[in-house]
Amino acid sequence: MAQSTETAYQKCINPACAAEFDCRQTIFKCPQCGDLLDIQYNWDKIEVPGKLSDFGRRWATRDNRLDFSGVWRFRELLNFCPDEYRVSIGEGQTILQQNDRIAEYLEIDKGCLYLQYEGLNPSGSFKDNGMTAAFSHAMMVGAKSCACASTGNTSASVALYAHSCGLKCTVFIGSGRIAFGKLSQAMDYGAQTIQIKGDFDDCMKQVQDVCVKLNLYLLNSLNPFRLEGQKTIMYRIIEQFGWQVPDWIVVPGGNLGNSSSFGKAFMELKQLGLINKIPRLAIVNATGADTLTELVNAKNLKWNNGNIDQTIIDKYYKVLTESNFSPHTCASAIEISRPVNLKKCLRAIDVCEGVVLAVTDEEICDAKALIGKYGLGCEPASAATIAGLKHLRDHGVIDADEKIACILTGHVLKDPNVTVNYHKNNEGLFSNPPVECDNNLDEIIKLISDD
Ligand SMILES: *Cc1c(COP(=O)(O)O)cnc(C)c1O
Ligand SMILES: [Zn+2]
């Protein structure tokens, strides 16, 4: 069972089970106990660079497609498949923007606030970091068709990678729950798009059964290979900080794949002696989809070395089911009430001394407009980071002189409806509505001069 001869293997995160499986198996959940699977490495069989800055040499060999990829140039740290299967469409060309104007608004010192803009990925969200890794695994196991449930960005990313890999692709979406930019991508990239009368959690349940019945390759973040790719968002942040770690990472929490993978990234880097400090992690929910916040802050749910108190989770979900609860937030990408990666996220909170909080839709929309006004813009879920950061500053959890990286998970054009409504309604802190004007030169000149 123990895959001692391989560089990588899959392992159940439940310590009472701890079953191990070969990476060539396509299982997604532990067949013995049903818990989540993790990718583990036999580091002594991998030539990991002696220091992180050694990865910088790959900038000089960018004509190699793997060195060009912002994911695969760190491939020694996610070494679960041979080069020949590794898929890339140029993901991970993202930037860390120092933003002193938003910092000033949040009373953070100049030079301390940074925005990691993952909207620059090929499909416009961070999801591409994970998909490039998961599709590489799909190629390794010879998958022919694939599927995912999605609040939007997963479907866009899956559809894009599927057609570039020649895989047939079906995406499940809760009807009426998807932002237009994302739906348009899934259709344009040629995915079969199935709109289920329900929410994301309903889609997630259906897709798992469909994948087993029809032998489709599953691309939700339940897929542990996806999370391996998402670790590289942290590597790139460290790289852009001159190979130093910041004090804080702030990330929106939906299905909790990102937060889980960030925790794993730092855990491994520390274990390898490549960093000596682990940054703290702040995970931000929307108040209309705040399962993590409730479980961690109100019910005191903890990682506890993997021995998680399942009764707390079961009780909480039972109440959701009995009250027919459906999550609601304008940040559709985090409109999830049964986060698949909850347990791995608890580990990340443990590793990174994490904090969890929830922000209102109003706060999200104002923060989004602030990011648009002074930064590169983002979609609503991404703005939960700045909204959350405001709380953390107001409550003194984060000091003015700490270095902070907020993950802007998706592109500003993903959800134009939320943006246009916010500005047109003119009720937000930063609303900037269009002005109507007659087709008349004097009137136009007067409008501009009066402004
Ligand atoms: C998927 C997504 C999220 C949620 O990330 P998780 O890893 O599921 O917590 C947040 N923002 C955007 C833009 C997303 O697409
Ligand atoms: Zn197990």
Q: Approximately how much helix is present in the residues? A: 25-40%
Secondary-structure arrangement, i.e. CATH architecture of the domain at 95-122 and 226-424:
3-Layer(aba) Sandwich
Secondary-structure element string = EEEHEHEHEHEHEHEHHEHEHHHEHHEHH
Strand order, largest beta sheet: 4-5-13-10-11-12
Shape: globular
Count of strand segments: 13
The fold-level CATH name of the domain at 95-122 and 226-424 is Rossmann fold
- Radius of gyration, in Å, reads 22 Å
Distance between the termini: 71 Å
Q: How large is the count of helical segments?
A: 16
Bound molecules: pyridoxal-5'-phosphate, zinc ion
Query: How would you sum up the major sheet?
Result: 6 strands, mixed
Structure class: alpha/beta
CATH class of the domain at 95-122 and 226-424: Alpha Beta
Portion in beta strands: 5-15%
The overall average pLDDT, rounded, is 96
Which stretches are poorly predicted, pLDDT < 50 over at least 5 residues?
A: none
Could you explain how this protein is built, in words?
The structure is a single chain. With 451 residues, the protein is an alpha/beta fold. Among the domains are: 1-46, no CATH class; 95-122 and 226-424, Rossmann fold (3-Layer(aba) Sandwich). It has 16 helices and 13 strands. It has helices at residues 65-68, 100-105, 127-140, 153-165, 180-188, 200-214, 224-230, 232-240, 257-271, 291-298, 310-322, 342-351, 361-374, 380-394, 416-425, 441-450, and strands spanning 8-12, 20-22, 37-41, 95-98, 113-117, 145-150, 168-174, 192-196, 217-218, 248-252, 280-286, 355-359, 404-408. It has a 6-stranded mixed sheet with strand order 4-5-13-10-11-12, with helices on both faces. Helix 3 (127-140) runs parallel beside helix 4, helix 4 (153-165) packs parallel to helix 5 (180-188) and helix 13 (361-374) packs across helix 14. The protein is globular, with a radius of gyration of 22 Å. The model has no long low-confidence stretch (mean pLDDT 96).
